[in-house]
Amino acid sequence: MIAFALGGLTQTSPSQVNTRAKMKSMFIYNFTKYTEWPESYKQGEFVIGIVGDDALASELENIAKTKKINSQSLIVKKFNSSSEVTKCHVLYVSGKAPQIEPYSKKAKNYSCLVVTEASGAIDNLAAINFIVVGAQLKYEMNKALFKNQGLVVSKSLENLAAKVIN
Q1: For residue 31, what are the contacts with CB-CB under 8 A and spacing of at least 6?
Q2: How many CA atoms lie within 13 A of 17 on its CB side?
Q3: For 128-146, how does the pLDDT look when each residue is reduced to its tens digit (9 = 90+)?
Q4: Pairing of β 113-116 and β 68-69
Q5: Which residue has the higher pLDDT, 119 or 17?
């Protein structure tokens, strides 16, 4: 069973830590541990692309200073438009479904795990979508979109999802 390590997320000062971004960064980092990419993606740098969430990018950059994904160095790239998107392992896109769609289409050129936080995005835009249940950050998953991207998701990650679409 996966234990998403969320220890050490206590906020020292409201201006110093964006707790939501910190939580999402920990989730995304853990998603990478339980997703398998094609062989050609298992060498070189492990790239996480971020669109529209500078606080999340900053938290992931902090993780990248001390962590690797498998044996790959972790780098974070910020994209401002879908035309800028290049090969990446994970692409987090902030915004509503219509804003996400061009990025999701571009990501289909790669074996890229698309992660969002938008109502309805799980239906056909994102393999993983953050949701809030009560006061807790959780995620839903679309297994078909993992498969379409050439990714294999672990049963453990699937079991922890609040909702799974086949």
Answers
A1: 90, 113, 115, 128, 157
A2: 13
A3: 999 999 999 999 999 999 9
A4: unpaired
A5: 119
